[in-house]
Amino acid sequence: MRTRLGDHLRERLHTFGLKAPSIAQCAVGAALAWLAATQLLGHPSPFFAPIAVLICVGVGLGQRLRRVTELVVGVSLGVGVGDLLVAWIGSGTWQIALVVALAMATAALLDSGALFALQAGSSAVLVVALVPGDSTGGLDRMLDALTGGAIGVAVVALLPASPVNLVAKHASGVLDALSTVLEQAAEAIEKRDVELAAEALEGARGTQAAVEEFEQALATGKEIAMISPLHWHRRARLARYERAVVPVDHALRNARVLARRTLAALGEAAPPSASLADSMREVSEAALLLQLELGAGREPVLARQALLAVAGSERPQGLGFSAHVIVAQLRSIVVDLLLATGAGPEEAGAALTPLDTPGTA
């Protein structure tokens, strides 16, 4: 019980550490947006300004520039529809239903973005519910949204989270997960341990969320590096992660098949040989090398050399059906990781010894 609580606490603290920069950006940006709208624009209650900052910056990962566009256009559409209809039909229960339906339907016809439609609908609600007794005009609310969106982008640019650290944390988790699956499968083969093989399979099945978070972190990191002059020099390091993200995803997918076949192979009359476990460990270590070299901002030369060595090693003989599948998946993982290091498809494929000769693992 204590172990579970400790793991949960560490996970929460890790999540907070990732989100803390965005929380600080939201707090500072919301205050600045309110100040700008009240003092510079002279708006008495510019609630759209800080709201725009929160939606623009957010506390998660996403496309902020698209958010700003959807926010401003969505708010403008909602305010426009709301102001027009309120002046004609007044405000009330059925008026809210009608205004929201029309605003969101119009937004859906113009753009498929969820935020766009939601902003149009919520803005229309605010107009119907709050505007009748408010002297603020629709143009002022649009200016508030634009001010907040602009300040949100400025805050991201001037008070940015480190794009490389953000991406590196998620990439590290994905590559560590890949290495762990291979290591556990190798140990299961050596010990003929079915439970350990099942544990490796369970761990492999739970890796897709980490891959998706890696992809989202990369999108956010690239966006920060694009809009923040402080991080323009990080683009080369981010490019290495961008090159690796798809092949690493493919490697994990192949690792899931490998783990499943490892579990099946341990139930066959001729279980896989220990030499196959050695090959798994070598690929596992290469994945960790890739993790370290990317994190250090270097070209993953050592990881590539390690993978090429595995690709050229001799393949175990006398394998059963499941073991043959394991070999095929391990070969695919080697190719995937070679692509992640920057090798070309032809180079990666040519590194494998042909299957009709004693070849690679």
TrEMBL record:
<feature type="transmembrane region" description="Helical">
    <location>
        <begin position="47"/>
        <end position="64"/>
    </location>
</feature>
<protein>
    <recommendedName>
        <fullName>Integral membrane bound transporter domain-containing protein</fullName>
    </recommendedName>
</protein>
<keyword id="KW-0812">Transmembrane</keyword>
<dbReference type="Pfam" id="PF13515">
    <property type="entry name" value="FUSC_2"/>
</dbReference>
<feature type="domain" description="Integral membrane bound transporter">
    <location>
        <begin position="33"/>
        <end position="155"/>
    </location>
</feature>
<keyword id="KW-1133">Transmembrane helix</keyword>
<feature type="transmembrane region" description="Helical">
    <location>
        <begin position="96"/>
        <end position="118"/>
    </location>
</feature>
<dbReference type="InterPro" id="IPR049453">
    <property type="entry name" value="Memb_transporter_dom"/>
</dbReference>
<feature type="transmembrane region" description="Helical">
    <location>
        <begin position="71"/>
        <end position="90"/>
    </location>
</feature>
<feature type="transmembrane region" description="Helical">
    <location>
        <begin position="20"/>
        <end position="41"/>
    </location>
</feature>
<dbReference type="GO" id="GO:0016020">
    <property type="term" value="C:membrane"/>
</dbReference>
<keyword id="KW-0472">Membrane</keyword>
